[in-house]
Amino acid sequence: MVGHLFTTVLTAARPVHADADEVASSTTALGSVRAHVSGAKGEPDRLGQQVVSATILADPAVALRRGDLLTDPATGLQWQVLTVVMRRGLGLDYQACESRVVSGVVVEP
Fold first, then answer.
1. 3-class SS shares of the chain: helix, strand, coil, % to 5
2. Does residue 18 surpass a pLDDT of 90?
3. What's residue 83's pLDDT?
4. How do residues 4-17 score in pLDDT, each as one tens digit?
5. How much is the pLDDT for 89?
6. What is the pLDDT of residue 6?
7. Element (H, E) at 96
8. How far is CA 26 from the centre of its chain?
9. Could you state, in order of their start, the residue ranges of all structural domains in the chain?
């Protein structure tokens, strides 16, 4: 993909659900995805815990969807994809994924 500055490579996986209401017991590996984590921010949830969210710009070579997990091996953070919007045009195609951290250590100032 020409024109985008991907700054990391994330490992993508898809949770395997036996039933829509069940918590995933395993995942299926989707492969590596070139990406850029943009605009990470933390906000308190109703219990006062920090929820970290970001927009992840991802190469469309691996088609992502809601619920997929993206792991950054450099930081150990695991992101859950909340929404995916495919952006196309001028050979600069990418996926804009609104995501939140679901595991890993987030350092607070």
1. 0, 55, 45
2. no
3. 95
4. 678 999 999 999 87
5. 77
6. 86
7. strand 94-103
8. 17
9. 8-103
User: What are the φ/ψ torsions at residue 12 (nearest 5 degrees)?
Assistant: -100, 140
The total number of residues written for the chain in this structure: 109
Nearest CA-CA partner of 99 in 54, 60, 41, 47: 54
CA 47 to CA 31: how far, in whole Å? 35
Reading the block at residue 83, the tokens are 């929404």
The stretch 48-66 carries a mean pLDDT of 91
What are the tokens at 44? 């308190």
Distance CA 61, CA 76 (A): 22
The CATH architecture that domain 8-103 belongs to is Beta Barrel (2.40)
Q: For 66-75, write each residue's pLDDT tens digit.
A: 999 999 999 8
Residue 53: both structure tokens together? 């969210």
Max intra-chain CA distance, the chain: 44
What integer best gives the mean pLDDT of the chain? 84
C-alpha closest to that of 10 among 87, 109, 99, 105: 99
